[in-house]
Amino acid sequence: MTTPARLTVLAGPTAVGKGTVSADIRARYPEVWLSVSATTRAPRPGEVDGVHYHFVTDDEFDRMVADGQLLEWAVVHGRNRYGTPRAPVEARLAKGEPALLEIDLQGARQVRASMPDARFVFLAPPSFEELERRLVGRGTEGPEERERRLATARIELAAEAEFDHVIVNDDVARATDELIATMGLPTR
């Protein structure tokens, strides 16, 4: 019988590079299973349904919540909902496979309440100014949305102490390797 694996939860503020670090893990550490969240937001250019997110309607999301199909879910930046489908996470952990959730602070708190033995990792920016530069540089939000996200980021940065580990994302490959080492896996 396989021993259940320990779940790792990666959270941090908007534009800190959670998606970039996750993409680096996908490319360099294929043995790590990365959960694909459901969201009610529209896809950004280049995002693929089922790979980056499961893009669902509000009605579909409501059904998932009502049926208990989400491990966690939240309204993010006051607009769209994001959530982690429960069944795939539980299946991976039962097989003893390394599993990683890339979620926001609200979701991390929900997972902590239901899975307190998970490993919680906060991805931090080198500075708030760098975080703002990254958010502006990606060009996916207008000025109003950027301000909303930066206001949320200030709150999220204050929650860093709630996490088991903090990794500063000053270099993607280094941050990825530190996350992998924190998960107890060999780096390469």
Q: How does this structure look, described?
A:
With 188 residues, the protein is an alpha/beta fold. It has one domain: 3-Layer(aba) Sandwich (Rossmann fold), CATH 3.40.50.300. The protein has helices spanning 18-28, 58-66, 86-94, 105-114, 128-138, 143-157, 172-182, and strands spanning 7-11, 33-34, 38-39, 54-55, 70-76, 80-85, 99-102, 119-124, 165-168. Strand 5 and strand 6 form a beta hairpin. 34% of the residues are buried. The mean pLDDT is 91.
Write the layout of secondary structure elements.
Blueprint: E1 7-11, H1 18-28, E2 33-34, E3 38-39, E4 54-55, H2 58-66, E5 70-76, E6 80-85, H3 86-94, E7 99-102, H4 105-114, E8 119-124, H5 128-138, H6 143-157, E9 165-168, H7 172-182
Parallel strand pairs: 1-7, 1-8, 2-7, 3-4, 8-9
Antiparallel strand pairs: 3-6, 5-6
